[in-house]
Amino acid sequence: MDPSELPVGRPGSPGAPGAGRHAALATPAASQAAPPPLTPEAVSQGAQAIAANVARVITGKQQAVQLAVTMFLAHGHVLIEDVPGVGKTMLAKALAASVGASVKRIQFTPDLLPSDVTGSPIFNQATRQFEFEAGPVFANIVIADEINRASPRTQSALLECMEEGQVTVEGTTYALPSPFHVVATQNPIDMEGTHALLEAQRDRFMARISLGYPDQEAEHVMVRARDLEEPIVAIRPVASLTAVYRMMDACRRIYVAEPVSRYAVALTRATRNSPALTLGASPRAAVHLLTAAKALAAVQGRGYAIPDDVQTLAVPVLAHRIMPVAPARGAEAITQAGAIIRDCMATVPVPIAAER
């Protein structure tokens, strides 16, 4: 399938009360006959089109952009941890613009309340009744900027949203738009006045991405491109939300041989036995690792996952969930966690899985 043939759609809208995250993944045109599943080749073409579109804004970071697109198609939330000014927020905005999705940004601050995120009942003077006013979390892509600057209570407002794709306010449940994707950012250097993410919160992010500084040529291209206007203004959708649904569905259908799934579980369990860690990765991490590996296989045009997919994603998916015995501080913590995961990988035999 040519990516240019993927229909361009309108941004999603908030759902009605009742449905949860997985129920909301049903195709928007439920009354119509379901089209045949996309082939891995079609998913690859669509993913590359989205990544190329995002790369018009985020220059010199092809690997990070591809990882962000892969996590989006895997229906997984992303934590971008890096220094200010490297394009964390712009990456999320460009991704949303590339798929015609609605996007809202929440600037997390110490005085932010949970209701500022989820929404709250507002008294309507005309009807003399309380009506629910949706908060900024009601969008396809939610940018949680500097998430660690808010209190743990406010951070916890995202737990139900990220796990179940819904918000419960005063006993009433409201479904969030689907797809629902959280891209959170935090600065690993400036830790003054911040609250470290709760373990339960970190565990809900499928992957952690670090952009890093661009090389000299890429930085020069970026500076020149922003001389007259921001490139994000010129970004147009290259795929519709309907196409995204089909790509996500195709990723879930990727075949996984038993040795590959056992390998993902073994890698996760190896972190729990590491003497360098006081807390290893959770069973949810194993699920996320295999789900992400299936999405990566589809993005690469394969109908089956291989051990290389698991190895490629082990650090982004597992490193932010572990707790070292002697944790480093600042940006060194990211390097330390990655090194520990690679040490764990070295202890697990790599299977030879038959291709399907």
Explain this structure to me?
By secondary structure, the chain is an alpha/beta fold. Helix 1 packs across helix 2, helix 10 packs parallel to helix 12 and helix 11 packs across helix 12. The longest helix has 17 residues. The protein is globular.
How many strands, what sense, and barrel or not for the largest sheet? 5 strands, parallel
CATH homologous superfamily of the largest domain? P-loop containing nucleotide triphosphate hydrolases
Overall body shape: globular
Average of per-residue pLDDT values: 86
Assess the beta-strand content as a share of residues.
5-15%
SSE class: alpha/beta
In short:
The chain has 356 residues and is an alpha/beta fold. The protein has helices at 40-55, 62-73, 88-98, 114-118, 152-155, 157-164, 199-202, 216-225, 241-252, 258-272, 283-299, 307-318, 332-346; strands spanning 77-81, 103-107, 119-124, 129-134, 141-145, 166-169, 172-175, 181-186, 205-209, 277-279, 323-324.
Provide the fold topology.
Elements: H1 40-55, H2 62-73, E1 77-81, H3 88-98, E2 103-107, H4 114-118, E3 119-124, E4 129-134, E5 141-145, H5 152-155, H6 157-164, E6 166-169, E7 172-175, E8 181-186, H7 199-202, E9 205-209, H8 216-225, H9 241-252, H10 258-272, E10 277-279, H11 283-299, H12 307-318, E11 323-324, H13 332-346
Parallel strand pairs: 1-8, 1-9, 2-5, 5-8
Antiparallel strand pairs: 3-4, 6-7, 10-11
Helix pairs in contact: 1-2, 1-3, 1-9, 2-11, 9-11, 10-11, 10-12, 11-12, 12-13
